[in-house]
TrEMBL record, chain A:
Record Pfam families: ABC_tran (PF00005), BCA_ABC_TP_C (PF12399)
Coiled coil start-end: none
GO cellular component: a single term: plasma membrane
Name of this protein: Urea transport system ATP-binding protein
Keyword Transmembrane helix attached: no
Ranges where the ABC transporter domain occurs: 23-263
Keywords attached to this entry: ATP-binding, Nucleotide-binding, Transport
InterPro entries for the chain: ABC_AA/LPS_Transport, ABC_transporter-like_ATP-bd, ABC_transptr_urea_ATP-bd_UrtD, BCA_ABC_TP_C, P-loop_NTPase
GO terms for MF: ATP binding; ATP hydrolysis activity
Taxonomic superkingdom: Bacteria
Automatic annotation (TrEMBL), chain B:
Organism: Thiothrix caldifontis
Compartment(s) where it occurs, according to its Swiss-Prot or TrEMBL record: Cell inner membrane
Record's protein name: Urea transport system permease protein
The keyword Secreted is annotated on this UniProt entry: no
Annotated keywords: Cell membrane, Membrane, Transmembrane, Transmembrane helix
Lineage: Bacteria, Pseudomonadati, Pseudomonadota, Gammaproteobacteria, Thiotrichales
Primary subcellular site in the record, as a coarse category: membrane
A GO molecular-function descriptor: branched-chain amino acid transmembrane transporter activity
Membrane association type: Multi-pass membrane protein
InterPro entries recorded: ABC_transp_permease (IPR001851), ABC_transptr_urea_perm_UrtC (IPR017778), LivM-like (IPR043428)
Recorded coiled-coil stretches: none
Keyword Transmembrane helix annotated: yes
Assigned GO CC terms: plasma membrane
UniProtKB/TrEMBL annotation, chain C:
GO molecular function term, any single one: transmembrane transporter activity
Pfam name, any one: BPD_transp_2
Any single GO BP term: amino acid transport
Family indicated by similarity: Belongs to the binding-protein-dependent transport system permease family. LivHM subfamily.
Signal peptide location: 1-25
One cellular component (GO) term of this entry: plasma membrane
Transmembrane segments: 231-258, 286-306, 318-336, 370-387, 454-478, 484-503
Keyword Zinc-finger: no
InterPro entries found in the cross-reference section: ABC_transp_permease (IPR001851), ABC_UrtB_bac (IPR017779), ARM-like (IPR011989), ARM-type_fold (IPR016024), BCAA_transport_permease (IPR052157)
Protein name (record): Urea transport system permease protein
């Protein structure tokens, strides 16, 4: 429960990515009841990079996200955010406040709140109890909400209950919530599931535009989508990295073809 | 104005508070100013009965805050109510002074009976009204804080939490039954004489207590509504709907839960403190798990997550209880049992939900006609 | 008490009225005829001689006469000199009571004991050996040693050696005394303890010290058996908890249904026992064998009814289920109050349930507790078998793990739900039969167990039958260990608080279900 220095990080600035990488995962192991979900996983994400992670079901993609965001604790290994933030010591909200945002595989928004309220709740800023009791939206925050609604194309739905949105719209809203959170690292789990082709293109556009300012990790099954956005792809298999490289390199990797792309 | 802003979108609350205000004016007039024997005179026992309902209503509002909005089904809120009641009871006990059966100015009767020589440390200070009132808030609040801190930090949720809140009140029930605890054991605290120098039997005192209960209900209601309307309220609802998501957005869920749980326990404590001088007794029976679970059914019947529904439910169910236990005592338990089953099966939104449904229909019809 | 005195009065009255013949007319053996004149002398010394004469005969037939003399019931016909045993202390004028004094009675006791020791029945021998323990004189000792050599029954042997050792404590020879003390160490016979306590002040320091040590070892042994007894009490309480909780372990643990009416299903089982006993008042001993299946059916049927009418509509809404089933519990309680009685009803224990199994003089296990433990283990084993080895068990586990998948595989999930709930409820009824033998049977019986049952299931780890068994038994033991110094109520409170804190630390209980599915 100690409010360590890492907590203050998000408001004060960037995580220390002085050695190029923003996320370090080293020698991670997780097992559930004897089943090794993550097996000696080592992975680095560079600052400002857009990385796609692919792999068959059960390859450990979601578990990896769970470790980064503090939902699951590894049995062994290291996970650092920049040079200074030890992710394994922080709780979920602390990690979120340190600047890691996550979009879930199944879109989860606050269903009984309006679209705008969803963004208000997700917005970066002071998240203490007493503060929130008296908090009012500042003009700046209002502007951010309007701007984000524009980006995700939900301006029309400002007052609509989030639970009443379509599946695709919920996906967008969740991306919007990620945006107002202003994270340094975005973890995006299957962003285009249930989207039309058109929506998919817009998502691709959005994610590419985010890279550079932010670091983005995308887990996706849709190969066309991955090809359209990725410059670097990591293939996970049985809990560890099988191959890494450009889409072309990965696609021509014999082992990858065997386990995954052999279709 | 502040109050109108709080009640902006709360039609039910506006109506409820208006009715409450009317009752708060009418009842004292009918009791004190209309002469006895007149058709319009309201007997004092009725005033007290209404006052009791109002404290139950406040208790129901407290439960609705945690159940309706935070999603925590507390089966132990009766414990906070009883603790507040005991704190008040201890003050009233001390006020008896040497007018007890044994005439001991320093010790309540039951302590003399148990051959105790001096006042235990935890009774110190309860002869002062302000101290007792502080304890009415602090004791339930502290218990809720510690319990909540332990439970929410280790993420005990759902049914598990309900069961351990029930175990909490059950443990307290057993504890307060013990004479050694120093709270009068089985018999509890009773035989109160006066409060702040006013006789508890006097009509004026009774009406004042009734009015205070009404004001406490109004105040508690507005406080809860204020909390719900704030950003904190929206976070609380977010926790109810998607706890884990709220964490990933950066909120420390356990802090919010503990905060709301503690506020709710304090409101329950105030309700208990107002209840005791009106009914004239507090005993361990108030800790019984049955009592706590009954509160939940008031809220369920009224309609959870509406606040005014809780008030409505508490008053209706208790009125029914008074009527039926008087007319046919055997049938009441059957009815209460049936209420639990029928409301959960057929009326998940409670009466408030029913009203909203009708309103929505009417609105649609009017629109169709236009 | 009053009744007993009335009864005695009545008896006396009838005796006075009829003066029934008190005589026991039968052929008397030669030894008795020989001893009869000595009794007539009316001197204690001569009486003693007569006793010696009788005792020396070794004839088991004389034992009743010596016993009668000892009990003050031996009379002599004034005229003919024949010895007569009076049956009810009422005699005519022609009989004279043979007087005894303290020392003679003591002497008699030894003589009777010695004679009984050669009785052909081992049980009689054992009884007399035990009676002799503290009265063995040096003279008797020699004789006892002879008997010991011939003795074949091990229990009698043990009793005889104990008596000899006790006699040796009086020996003049220090070495004999020390050996005797040593052989008595750890012996739990109350006489031994008393005797050794007096010996701690023996003039010989070495003997006194040895006696002290022997006493300590006796106390240690007694303490050990005390712990065994606490453990046994704890296990029997734990068995009650397990019985009450095990049905819940199925409905809550396997199906995830919060059934607050579980306690009332237990209560129905207890009432079924009551009704069964009312129907067969002359066969109380067999009533439980009827009550167990009957209670299973009654509570099981009620469970299925509840599942079909209410719970079915609330799957996936645990908090609503909790409220609805609580309502059902109120209705069931009130139903029993209205239909049967608001008061407790009497349920009798079969004769085979009363009494106790005596392990030794400090430890005896009452049969009702013993049977509860055995019954609990039987029910557990049966349930485990049903869930693990039968087709129904397989389907239950399949539905509880993945309802949609199970349905896709052709499992009729609605039927399985009803049957599972019926099974859990039926077990609750069976628990009720067991509880009816231990506590008062009343409308509130179930309420007292519902919180405990939930605690046991949650403490053990939801969905784990073994967890429920271990949790129930250990909570029972902890409760009984705490009781002596905390009192029953405080012990219970402490256990509750402990569980509340434990759940905070390990929300998934002692034996959590593992795996990804267990997460949220």
């Amino acid at each position: 429960m100690s409010e360590g220095a890492h907590l203050r990080q998000p408001e004060t600035g960037q995580p220390d990515a002085s050695h190029k990488a923003i996320l370090y995962l080293e020698g991670l192991n997780v097992s559930f009841d004897g089943f090794k979900a993550i097996n000696d996983l080592t992975l680095y994400i560079d600052s400002g990079e857009l990385r796609c992670i692919i792999g068959p079901n059960g390859a450990g993609k979601t578990t990896m996200m769970d470790i980064i965001t503090g939902k699951t604790r590894p049995n062994s290994g290291q996970a650092w955010f920049g040079q200074t933030v030890d992710l394994l010591k922080l709780s979920e909200p602390e990690i979120a406040n340190a600047g890691i945002g996550r979009k879930f595989q199944k879109p989860t928004v606050f269903e009984s709140h309006s679209v705008a309220e969803n963004l208000e709740l997700a917005m970066h800023g002071n998240k203490s109890v007493w503060y929130s009791l008296r908090a009012r939206l500042s003009g700046e925050q209002q502007a951010l909400i309007d701007e984000t609604l524009q980006t995700i194309g939900l301006t029309e739905n400002y007052h609509q209950q989030a639970g009443a949105l379509s599946h695709g719209q919920k996906q967008w809203l969740e991306i919007g919530m990620l945006l107002v959170q202003k994270p340094h690292l975005l973890l995006v789990d299957e962003p285009v599931a249930g989207m039309t082709h058109q929506e998919m293109e817009r998502t691709a556009e959005l994610l590419t535009s985010l890279a550079g300012k932010h670091s983005v990790v995308v887990v996706e099954h849709d190969m066309d989508f991955v090809r359209s956005i990725a410059n670097k792809v990591t293939v996970l298999h049985q809990g560890s990295v099988l191959a890494e490289g450009t889409m072309d390199e990965v696609q021509n990797d014999q082992r990858v073809i065997e386990v995954y792309l052999g279709e | 104005m502040f109050i109108t802003r709080i009640l902006q979108n709360d039609r039910g609350g506006q109506i409820m508070l208006a009715v409450l205000a009317l009752v708060l004016v009418l009842v004292p007039v009918l009791n004190l100013l209309v002469p006895e024997g007149s058709f319009l005179h309201m007997p004092t026992y009725l005033v007290t009965l209404l006052g009791k309902y109002l404290t139950y209503a406040l208790l129901a509002v407290a439960v609705d805050l945690v159940w309706g909005y935070l999603g925590i089904l507390s089966l132990g809120h009766g414990a906070f109510f009883a603790l507040g009641g005991y704190a008040m009871g201890m003050y009233l006990m001390r006020q008896i002074g040497d007018r007890g059966v044994y005439g001991n100015a320093n010790l309540p009767d039951f302590m003399v009976f148990l051959n105790w020589k001096e006042l235990p440390w935890f009774w110190q200070g309860f002869d002062m009204f302000w101290f007792a009132m502080l304890m009415v808030l602090l004791v339930p609040g502290l218990l809720a804080f510690v319990f909540g801190w332990l439970a929410f930090r280790s993420r005990v949720t759902g049914v598990y939490l309900s069961i351990i809140t029930q175990a909490l009140t059950y443990a307290l029930l057993l504890a307060f039954f013990r004479n050694e605890m120093g709270f009068g054991g089985n018999n509890g605290l009773t035989d109160f004489k006066d409060i702040l120098g006013f006789s508890l039997q006097a009509d004026g005192t009774r009406v004042t207590l009734f009015a205070l209960s009404g004001l406490a209900l109004a105040g508690g209601y507005l406080l809860c509504r204020y909390i719900i309307n704030s950003k904190l309220g929206r976070i609380v609802v977010a926790i109810r709907d998607a706890e884990s998501r709220t964490r990933f957005v950066g909120y420390r869920v356990e802090h919010y839960k503990v905060w709301v749980f503690t506020v709710s326990a304090m409101l329950a404590g105030i309700a208990g403190a107002l209840y005791v001088p009106q009914v004239g007794i507090i005993n361990p029976g108030e800790f019984s798990p049955l009592n706590s679970i009954e509160i939940v059914i008031w809220v369920a019947i009224g309609g959870r997550a509406t606040l005014y529904g809780a008030v409505l439910g508490a008053i209706l169910v208790n009125y029914a209880k008074t009527v039926f236990t008087g007319l046919m005592p055997e049938s009441w338990i059957f009815m209460l049992g049936a209420l639990f089953v029928l409301v959960t099966l057929y009326l998940p939104q409670g009466l408030a939900g029913l009203v909203q449904q009708f309103q929505a229909k009417g609105w649609l019809q009017r629109r169709a006609a236009a | 008490m009053l009744k007993t005195t009335d009864f005695t009065r009545l008896l006396l009255l009838s005796v006075l009225l009829w003066l029934c013949p008190p005589l026991q007319a039968e052929q008397q053996s030669a030894t008795l005829t020989q001893a009869a004149p000595l009794f007539q002398e009316a001197s204690f010394d001569k009486t003693r001689e007569a006793v010696d004469l009788l005792a020396a005969s070794g004839d088991p037939e004389v034992v009743p006469y010596l016993q009668a003399l000892l009990d003050g019931k031996l009379y002599q016909d004034k005229a003919q000199g024949t010895l007569v045993i009076a049956k009810d202390g009422n005699t005519g004028d022609e009989l004279r009571k043979i007087p005894t004094n303290n020392s003679l009675r003591k002497y008699l006791r030894g003589a009777v004991g010695q004679l009984s020791l050669s009785h052909p029945d081992a049980a009689v021998r054992l009884k007399s050996a035990n009676g002799l323990l503290e009265t063995v004189t040096p003279e008797m000792a020699t004789q006892l040693r002879g008997l010991l050599e011939k003795e074949t029954d091990s229990a009698v042997k043990e009793a005889l050696s104990l008596g000899l050792a006790m006699a040796d404590l009086n020996a003049a020879d220090k070495a004999v005394r020390l050996t005797a003390i040593e052989s008595l160490a750890g012996n739990l016979h109350p006489g031994v303890r008393n005797r050794l306590t007096t010996m701690t002040t023996d003039s010989d320091a070495e003997v006194a010290k040895a006696a002290q040590e022997a006493l300590r070892s006796i106390e240690d042994t007694a303490a050990l058996y005390g712990h065994v007894e606490t453990l046994f009490f704890g296990l029997s309480l734990g068995s009650v908890l397990v019985l009450a909780a095990i049905g819940l372990a199925i409905t809550f643990g396997v199906m995830g249904v919060i059934n607050m009416a579980h306690g009332e299903l237990i209560m129905l089982g207890a009432y079924t026992t009551y009704i069964v006993q009312q129907l067969m008042p002359n066969f109380i001993d067999y009533s439980l064998f009827v009550a167990v299946p009957a209670a299973f059916i009654v509570s099981g049927a009620m469970g299925i009814l509840i599942e079909r009418t209410v719970i079915r509509h609330l799957y996936g809404r645990p908090l609503e289920t909790l409220l609805a089933t609580f309502g059902i519990s109120l209705i069931l309680q009130q139903l029993v109050r209205t239909v049967i009685s608001p008061q407790n009803v009497p349920v009798s224990n079969p004769s085979w349930m009363s009494g106790s199994l005596e392990i030794n003089s400090v430890l005896s296990l009452t049969y009702n507790r013993l049977y509860i433990v055995l019954f609990c283990l039987m029910v557990f084993a049966l349930l485990y078998f049903v869930l693990r080895k039968t087709n129904l068990g397989l389907q239950v586990r399949a539905v509880s793990q993945n309802r949609a998948m199970a349905r896709a595989m052709g499992v009729r999930s609605a039927r399985v739900d009803a049957l599972t709930f019926g099974l859990g409820s039926g077990i609750a009824g069976v628990a009720g039969v067991a509880l009816s033998q231990l506590t008062n049977v009343g409308p509130n019986l179930g309420q007292a167990y519902i919180i405990d049952s939930f605690m046991v299931v949650v403490f053990g780890g939801v969905g784990n039958l073994w967890g429920t068994l271990v949790a129930g038994l250990s909570l029972g033991v902890v409760n009984k260990v705490l009781e002596p110094w905390a009192g029953a109520v405080l012990a219970k409170i402490l256990v509750l608080v402990f569980i509340i804190l434990f759940i905070q630390k390990r929300p998934r209980g002692l034996f959590p279900q593992k795996g990804r599915a267990a997460g949220d």
